[in-house]
Write a structure and sequence with these properties.
The structure holds two protein chains of two kinds.
Chain A lengths: L1 H13 L2 H19 L5 H14 L4 H26 L10 H10 L3 H34 L4 H15 L7 H16 L1 E2 L6 E2 L13 H20 L21 H23 L4 H17 L10 H25 L5 H12 L6 H6 L1 H22 L3 H7 L4 H20 L2 H19 L5 H23 L11 H36 L4
Antiparallel strand pairs in A: 1-2
Helix pairs in contact in A: 1-15, 2-3, 2-4, 2-15, 3-4, 3-9, 3-13, 3-17, 4-5, 4-6, 4-12, 4-13, 4-15, 5-6, 5-12, 5-20, 6-10, 6-12, 6-15, 7-19, 7-20, 8-19, 9-17, 9-18, 10-11, 10-12, 11-12, 12-13, 13-19, 17-18
Chain B lengths: L1 H21 L14 H19 L10 H24 L1 H15 L4 H22 L12
Chain lengths: ~525, ~140
C-alpha cells in the first residue's frame, strides 16, 4: 500500500496548473517531433534540455516536460510511417510495414487511430510496469558498492550497441571516445587539470549538453544538406488522403489480444539492457506475425500489424525508464538523453533518487500517466493537425532546428566558445554516422565518464590499491559475465537478427530510400 | 579504405590520449589510483578498437560527391562564423543571415530564403525572448 500512497503523492505533485501545462506542451511538441522525419525522440529531447534549463524550471517540471516529449515522440513516430512510409523515428520503422499499405487502401485514418490506441495501451501498462518494477530494482541496487557500479557501467556500455549492432568494435570505439571526452577538465578527486591543453575554457570540462545537441541535432542538419534533392527528400512524396478517423469497435477488439501480448514483450525488451524501443517493436511485430498471421495478410495492411509494433515500442519506451531511474544507467539513446536532463539538474539518478527525491520520481510517474491520457486525446481527434505539420518541408524546418539549438546552448553559457565546440560536435557526428559508428555510446560516455571513474577509483582506494576488488564479489562477477555475454552475443548472432530485420523490410515494404 | 583511415586516425588519437595522460601533473595529494589510470584504460580500448578497423574494415560508406562535401564544410564554416559574430551582430541579424543561408542551401529560392531567414529569426526572437524571457545575444540596436 506504500506504493499507492507514493503514487498519490506523485499525483499531488503533478496536478498543479504549471505541471499540467508543461505536460500538455511536452506531449504536443513531442508528437510533432516524433512525426517529423529527421527529428526523433533523442533529437527532440536534446534540443529542449538547454531550453528547459535556461527557463529556470525546477527539477520536477523540467522532467515532466521532457519525458512528455519523450512519450509524445514515441506516439508521433507512427504518423509519418503510415502516411509517407518514412518512419518518423527509428522505433516506428516496423509500423511502415502494415501502416503504409493501410493508408494506400484509403484507411489511413483508421490506421492512425488504431496505432494511437495501441500506443496508449503499450505506454499505459508499461508505466504501471515501471511503478511496480522500479522499486524492486532499487532494493537490489542498494546492495551495490563502487565495484558493482563500475561493473554496471561497463555492462551498460557493452550492451548499448544492442543485439542488432553491426560492428562491436565501433561501439567500443564510440564508448572510449565519449569516456575520453569526459576526462577533459579538472580531475574531481585530486584537482589537477587533464587534457585541457592550457585552454581555460576546458577546465570545467566539456558540457555534455553541448556534445549532445551537436551530435544529435546539428549532425542531422548536415545529413539533410547531404541528401537534398535526392529521393530521400520527403517533399517529393505524394499526399495521402486520411479517410475516416474513428475505427470500428470490431477492429479494435480484434487487436486486443495482439496489444496485450506485445505490450508485455515490448516492456521486457525495454527493461533489458541493449534492446530498447527499436528492438521492442521489431520482436513484437515478428512474434505477432508468427502467431496470428494465418492468411498471410501481414505486410498488406493488416490492422494487427499496425497495433503490434506500436504497442511494442511504446511499452519498451516505458520499460527503458526502469533501469534509467532505478540504477542511473540508461539502456537506450533517448533515456541516455533523459539522464542528461537529470544530471544537468544536479539530480543523481539511481537508488538514492527514490529515497532522497521521492517527489521527483513519483511526480514524474504521475505525469507520465496524465501525459498518456493527453496523448490519447491528442492523437485520435487531433491527428489531422499533426499530419499538416508533416507538410512543413525540411528546408524550412532544419534551419529552425539548427537555430534553436544555438539559442539553447547560448542561453546556458553565453559563450561563443561553446557554440563552436557544438558545431565541431555536429561535424564529428556527421562523420561518425557516415562511418556507421553509433552516437549513443559517445553520449553515454561523456555523461557517465566521471561517475564511472569515481566508482573505479573509490573501489580500488577502499581496498588500498588492490585491483582485484573489481571482480571479487559474486555480484560483480555476475555483472561482468552479463557484460561479456552482451558484448560477444551480437558478434555471434547479430548478423542473423540484422538480416531478419532487413529481410522483413525489403520483402514487405517494397523499396525504400 | 575509409575504415582503415579511420582506424589509423583512431590509433593516433589513442596514442595522443595516452601521451597526454602520461604528462598529467600529479599533485602531492593523490589517491591509490591516481588521475592517470582510467585514461590509460580508455586509450587501450580505443587503440584496440582502432586496430580492429585497420585489420577488418567495413564496406565503404557512400561518401557524397566533392560538391556536397564542400557544401557541408561550408555550412559548418558559416556556423562557426555565426558563433563568432553573435556577440557583435546580435541575435536577430546573425540568425536571419544564417537561417537564410541554410534554407537557401537546402533548396529554397533566393527571395524565399530571405523571407524564411528573417521569419525564423523574428519567430524565435518573439517566442524565446518576448514570451519566454530567455536572454539572447544583443546587437548594435539593442536587439
Amino acid at each position: 500500500m506504500e506504493l499507492m500512497s507514493n503514487l498519490a503523492d506523485g499525483f499531488a505533485v503533478a496536478l498543479t496548473w504549471q505541471n499540467l501545462a508543461l505536460a500538455l506542451m511536452g506531449c504536443f511538441l513531442g508528437t510533432i517531433m516524433g512525426a517529423l522525419p529527421g527529428l526523433g525522440p533523442s533529437n527532440g529531447v536534446a534540443i529542449l534540455i538547454p531550453l528547459a534549463f535556461t527557463l529556470g524550471l525546477g527539477a520536477t517540471p523540467s522532467l515532466i516536460l521532457l519525458t512528455s516529449v519523450y512519450y509524445g515522440a514515441m506516439y508521433g513516430g507512427r504518423i509519418s510511417s503510415i502516411l509517407l512510409n518514412i518512419p518518423g523515428d527509428e522505433p516506428a520503422m516496423m509500423t511502415c510495414l502494415d501502416g503504409y499499405p493501410m493508408a494506400q487502401q484509403g484507411r489511413a485514418g483508421e490506421a492512425l487511430a488504431l496505432s494511437g490506441i495501441a500506443s496508449f495501451v503499450g505506454a499505459f501498462f508499461a508505466t504501471w510496469g515501471l511503478v511496480l518494477l522500479a522499486p524492486q530494482l532499487v532494493k537490489v541496487a542498494l546492495l551495490f558498492g563502487p565495484a558493482e557500479y563500475f561493473a554496471l557501467f561497463a555492462l551498460a556500455f557493452a550492451t548499448l550497441g544492442g543485439i542488432s549492432s553491426t560492428n562491436q568494435a565501433k561501439s567500443a570505439f564510440a564508448a572510449a571516445l565519449g569516456l575520453g571526452l569526459a576526462m577533459i577538465g579538472v580531475d574531481t578527486q585530486t584537482g589537477v587539470p587533464r587534457f585541457t591543453f592550457g585552454e581555460v575554457h576546458l577546465y570545467d570540462g566539456i558540457d555534455f549538453l553541448v556534445a549532445i545537441v551537436g551530435l544529435f541535432a546539428l549532425s542531422e542538419v548536415f545529413i539533410f544538406l547531404e541528401h537534398r534533392g535526392t529521393d530521400r527528400d520527403i517533399s517529393t512524396k505524394p499526399k495521402m488522403e486520411i479517410g475516416r478517423i474513428v475505427p470500428s469497435w470490431g477492429l479494435i477488439r480484434s487487436c486486443i489480444p495482439t496489444m496485450g501480448r506485445t505490450t508485455v514483450l515490448g516492456f521486457v525488451a525495454g527493461v533489458l539492457p541493449g534492446a530498447g524501443a527499436s528492438l521492442g517493436s521489431f520482436i513484437s511485430y515478428s512474434m505477432e506475425k508468427r502467431l496470428v498471421d494465418r492468411d498471410g495478410t501481414f505486410g498488406k495492411g493488416d490492422p494487427r500489424g499496425v497495433a503490434a509494433p506500436e504497442a511494442g515500442n511504446n511499452a519498451a519506451a516505458g520499460g527503458a525508464l526502469v533501469p534509467m531511474l532505478a540504477l542511473g544507467v540508461p539502456g537506450s539513446g533517448t533515456t541516455a538523453v533523459l539522464l542528461a536532463v537529470l544530471l544537468s539538474l544536479n539530480i543523481t539518478p539511481g537508488p538514492l533518487l527514490f529515497t532522497q527525491n521521492p517527489d521527483v520520481v513519483w511526480g514524474l510517474i504521475a505525469a507520465l500517466f496524465i501525459g498518456n491520457f493527453m496523448l490519447l486525446a491528442m492523437n485520435i481527434p487531433m491527428v489531422g493537425l499533426f499530419t499538416r505539420v508533416l507538410l512543413v518541408p525540411p528546408r524550412i524546418l532544419m534551419p529552425i532546428v539548427a537555430m534553436i539549438s544555438f539559442v539553447g546552448i547560448y542561453g546556458i553559457s553565453g559563450s561563443s566558445f561553446d557554440l563552436m565546440v557544438m558545431v565541431g560536435f555536429g561535424i564529428m557526428g556527421w562523420i561518425l554516422r557516415k562511418l556507421d559508428v553509433p552516437l549513443v555510446p559517445v553520449i553515454l560516455g561523456t555523461l557517465l565518464g566521471n561517475e564511472m571513474e569515481v566508482n573505479f577509483r573509490r573501489a580500488v582506494n577502499i581496498s588500498d590499491g588492490d585491483y582485484s576488488v573489481l571482480i571479487s564479489s559474486p555480484l560483480t562477477i555476475m555483472l561482468w559475465t552479463i557484460a561479456a555475454i552482451g558484448f560477444v552475443l551480437p558478434i555471434l548472432v547479430g548478423g542473423l537478427v540484422r538480416r531478419r530485420m532487413r529481410m522483413a523490410r525489403d520483402a514487405e515494404s517494397g523499396v525504400r530510400d | 579504405m575509409s575504415d582503415r583511415i579511420f582506424g589509423g586516425i583512431g590509433l593516433i588519437l589513442a596514442l595522443i590520449f595516452a601521451w597526454q595522460a602520461s604528462i598529467i601533473q600529479e599533485s602531492f595529494l593523490t589517491d591509490a589510483v591516481g588521475p592517470k589510470t582510467f585514461p590509460y584504460l580508455i586509450a587501450i580500448v580505443m587503440g584496440l578498437a582502432s586496430l580492429y578497423f585497420l585489420l577488418k574494415p567495413d564496406p565503404e560508406p557512400d561518401w557524397p560527391r566533392a560538391g556536397r562535401l564542400a557544401e557541408i564544410g561550408f555550412a559548418a564554416l558559416v556556423m562557426f562564423a555565426y558563433a563568432q559574430a553573435l556577440p557583435e551582430l546580435g541575435f536577430l541579424i546573425a540568425t536571419a543571415i544564417v537561417a537564410g543561408y541554410l534554407t537557401w542551401r537546402l533548396g529554397s529560392r533566393p527571395v524565399e530564403s530571405l523571407i524564411i531567414g528573417v521569419g525564423t529569426s523574428v519567430g524565435i526572437y518573439v517566442i524565446f525572448r518576448l514570451l519566454l524571457g530567455l536572454s539572447l545575444a544583443r546587437g548594435p540596436f539593442g536587439l
